[in-house]
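ugh ok fine here u go
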Amino acid sequence: MNDDKNNDDTLSTNASLEQHENLHELSITQQQLSNGCEYTTVANNNTSSKRRKLILHFDNRNTLQVANSVSATTIEQGVNNFLTGVLWGYENDAGEWSWISEYPTLHKPEHSSRCITYFKYLENQIVREAIDRKDLRAKTGSFVHNEGARFRPYYDALIESLRYNRLGGSERAREDTILNIEASQKPTENASESQPKTQPHQQPGNPARKRRSSVLHNDGVPVNGFRSANGTLYHYILPSFFQLIQYLQKTNRDFVIYLRTMGDDSKNFLRNAERILSNEHPSFQFSHCLDVNPEPGCIERPKGEPIRLRMKFQEASDTEIINDEFAIHEKLESGFGIYAIKDDFTAWFQKNYHYTKSKPVWFDPDDRSPRSHHILFDDNFRVIDPHDSIVDIRIMNREKHQCYSCPFEFYPELENIFAVQANLYLILADSNYYVKTIDECERNFDKLLENTQLLSKIKEKSSIQNND
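structure:
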């Protein structure tokens, strides 16, 4: 790695969280369970925003989990995919890709108007219709073994952070010994998922040799464990998510959580989360049960029609269909526990990934004492290109009873208030990443509510620039 780099934008598993250094109201202490497992408690002395209910939205992929059993995305492929979205370059005049990035960063390098992420470059090259995204996942899934070989150290650091058994423990020593022996005995059949011998775009008529299962597959998979094809044990749901729920319960916050994905990967997540929230995991203990709704709902964005929510809430016996955005906001605001919502990928894709057809969240600029606060975490949220961002901040105009997409020019002002570009490096490096980031969003929201001039501009321009 480039250890001499000391740039705030550098993504490192050892990165200090400079953006959170001044959060003096958070008191963080380490404690230990009776079984010896350590955990962290966080106390929040910031009273200015405690009155607001948190409506927390999370993308699944590279935000709360890396593997995806529905799309058969392994941990290793997921990490490769993430790296393509934080490494930058451009297509030169010869039609070839040229790298600008020397290390991963969420932020677009300065002084290069042509600069895009490698993921966006591949997306433009490969995807012509929705089904092509399968080929895109395959291409990005082998990144560091091909054109991204120079970035292998960052991949290795992320993989290490995702390992279930930590270095120094007896379980990890046993696992590594077995993996090393099997790799040396059967190098072609037991190759690690992190070193695939077959390219993911392999032709159907030339199947890969089937790998022999590792003896590690005879071991039981612990709660929140995910075993890769070669037997390596990883975390399935990232531990920082459960650290956040512990904190919210301990500080008596009113909150609801919505998984916001454009795929079909929510049900497995919900089943695993329910087990952990039932105190089956030795490292997490919850003060009270949190309801988990096993049936995902959906948000539909049909062309020329209002946004529509289909959802079966805990208190209802039937699926509700709501096509009024004010009613949708109120319904989401009244929820409790954990839900899943599938957003409308087709609408977003057909609009060339324009943010106005992506994942909506709501904000009323006239309400200076709001009772709730939407925050959406997604690694695909960006503020540099309206065709490369996945959050639609909906501005509520109660006089007209209309909601409008916020003009993209205001997104830099609203970043880290209503939407956060999830940083997988920091999520893995600090189990309190979500706690600290939400605290930052609440502080920024307090400041925004005091900026009456900016709020008036947002409302005015949103009504004029009706992006729908």
